[in-house]
Design brief:
There is one protein chain. With 193 residues, the protein is mainly alpha-helical. 79% of the residues lie in helices and 0% in strands. Helix 2 packs antiparallel against helix 5. The two termini are 32 Å apart.
Length: 193
């Protein structure tokens, strides 16, 4: 099944051709204008090329802009997923309740998933061909993510009612805010690319 937009375009082109034919027949039938019976090959070639370019160029440009837009949408969606992972960790760490062993494992797992999502995001940015360098943003996000993971990493699984010390919670909150700011700025830069 073809895309409805593509079908609409074909319908529009066919309609324009039919309207042109109807207008040509009407003009020839109702108005007695002197029409040259011979065909000038240069004028005919010019007409064909003009019609071809009028249809082909917008199609190609439209397709390329659609592909670029789809790439940007995919990358922005991945950034939002990354932001939500870091937000979930932040909520677990900053919560009033002590962290039970299950929540602690969830935090460690989310940090691992976030790290892999960040690497996937970096790969997408590398191959998106946006003609913009994201090296500074990538380095910033990698550094902040590594600091975040190292800050919250605990060697042994904690016992019941574990809480991170207050200084760790404060540093985590600051790192989370920096990560959130860096990802938002990355979305802005992608939108402008």
């Amino acid at each position: 099944m073809k895309d409805p937009r593509t079908l609409y375009r074909y319908f529009l082109y066919a309609s324009l051709v039919l309207i042109g034919i109807v207008i040509g027949v009407a003009v020839r039938h109702y108005y007695h204008m002197p029409i040259e019976e011979t065909i000038n090959i240069v004028d005919l070639a010019t007409l064909v090329v003009t019609v071809f370019l009028a249809v082909y160029i917008p199609e190609v440009l439209n397709r390329k802009s659609e592909v670029q837009k789809d790439k940007k949408d995919l990358i922005e969606k991945r950034i939002e997923e990354l932001q939500s992972l870091y937000r979930r960790v932040n909520l677990l760490i900053q919560g009033e309740e002590p962290i039970n062993p299950k929540d602690f494992l969830v935090v460690q797992n989310i940090l691992d998933v976030a790290q892999h999502k960040l690497e996937t995001l970096i790969t997408l940015l590398t191959y998106a061909e946006m003609h913009t360098s994201f090296a500074d943003e990538i380095n910033t996000l990698r550094s902040l993510s590594k600091q975040h993971q190292e800050l919250l990493w605990v060697q042994q699984e904690p016992k019941e009612d574990f809480t991170y010390p207050d200084d760790i919670q404060q540093r985590e909150e600051k790192l989370y805010n920096k990560i959130d700011k860096a990802t938002c700025l990355l979305i802005f830069k992608i939108s402008e690319a």
